[in-house]
Amino acid sequence: MGNYTEALADYEEALRLFNTLGSRFGQAWVYVDQAIVYVDQNKLDHARRTCNDAIGIFREQGARRGEGWALMVLGDVARKMRKPGDARSYYNEALAIFNSMGDRADQARVLNALGAASQGESEYPEAKEHFEHAYAIAHEQESLQLEGRALRGLGDVARAMRQLSEADHFYNQAAMIATNLDTPAERCAVLHHQGELRYLQGQQREALVAWVQALAQDRRLGHPDRQALQDRISALVTEQHLEEAYAELRKQLEV
Predict the structure, then answer these.
(1) Which residues of the chain are in CATH 1.25.40.10 domains?
(2) pLDDT tens digits in sequence order for the chain, 255 residues long
(3) What is the model's pTM?
(4) Could you tell me which residues come within 8 angstroms of residue 233 by beta carbon, excluding any fewer than 6 positions away?
(5) Most-buried pick from 71, 75, 165, 196 (CB within 10 A)?
(6) Four-way CATH pick for 1-102: 1.25.40.10, 3.40.30.10, 1.10.3490.10, 1.20.810.10
């Protein structure tokens, strides 16, 4: 999580290797991997161009699954650019490809993305339906990572609808999966959202604990999302006079 320079250097080396081998298919998959990193870096124009390069090759090669993945990442780009209509269009194109192939795991992956898109537009019943569908497929496929992402999404929907006990239940399940799988990025996301829930419940000290734990998992130094969380922590500490508790947490977690 956050080792962008190292990851992109590895991908450049992989591109050189596939170019030497004359493997257009391999190059296209590396483009998709690069685009995922660019999305996380908020380098959205880079991500879009790289995805379009990948789609061109996948279509030339008749590689439908690769095309679906690149469309899915384009959906992520559009969602971050606050273009929800474009995001849904890309996600639905990807879903149609995965449906036609019977690719259940990738169906769940896109359904989670569609759930997040609907959640972002405050279309909660639709978001819940997408996340529930994703969860059912992930559970069927025994894909704990996708299952955990769906549970976090269901927690987000429940929190937005002020169904706080349900949100707590879903977040706890998602946190257990993220901890068992040792996935820092997902663990960070769940902790962040658990903090939001605790704050909403008026449990400011518990919110601080969750947010500082999330910050400790987030190694994206200088990333806007990480800075936003740091700012939220600082505001909470000042507002609730939690300086002593914060200092102790920082010492314990080496933040």
Answers:
(1) 1-102
(2) 557 888 899 999 999 999 999 999 999 999 999 999 999 999 999 999 999 999 999 999 999 999 999 999 999 999 999 999 999 999 999 999 999 999 999 999 999 999 999 999 999 999 999 999 999 999 999 999 999 999 999 999 999 999 999 999 999 999 999 999 999 999 999 999 999 999 999 999 999 999 999 999 998 877 889 999 999 999 999 999 999 999 999 999 887
(3) 0.92
(4) 208, 211, 212, 215, 246
(5) 75
(6) 1.25.40.10
